[in-house]
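User: Teach me something about this protein's shape.
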Amino acid sequence: MLDRLLEWDRDTLIYLNNLGTENYDLFWITITSFYTWIPLFLIIIALIFWKNSSKVGLWMLLSYISMLVTLMVAVFAVKNITTRLRPNNDETINTLIRVVHEANNFSFFSGHAASSFSIAALAVLFLRKKFTLVHLAWLYPLLFSYSRIYLGVHYPIDIIVGGIVGVLLASIFYRLHQKFRAPYIM
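Assistant: First, the predicted structure itself:
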């Protein structure tokens, strides 16, 4: 079963990665950069404070920071426990894919996918009742995560697990926020 899953993972990466062409490389390199998304982060922060009191906004921001710190620790720990090579560093596959970007640390699970899905999920959870267009935030993790496959630095399973972890962690921190904010905000 695990062998079939890993075979699917490898074949899917090869297929999706080879859909790319040099004409789009710069676009996907730009998409994968954290700095490209800073305006989105600033918009989310602005909406949090615009749609809530400053005290509630600060607690939401604290929830975001706590979630992202927890996530980065988890990503670092899991990558160093699993030590899965990135496709661009794996000699059994790197000649079959387009390696557009080099990355050197381990692959499983994708920190890009986990962080982007957690940021979008928490934005949706915090703002969905006050700002319906917040659901457009889901475009961010979809593009950000796919860029990692396009560039040849992550397998699809890395992305899928990263996305699941990100959404689960956002749900946990949303619930923690709901549970513990009441005594301090009222």
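Now, about its shape. The two ends are 52 Å apart (CA to CA). The chain has one domain: 2-185. If you'd like, I can walk through any region in more detail.
User: That's plenty for now, thanks!
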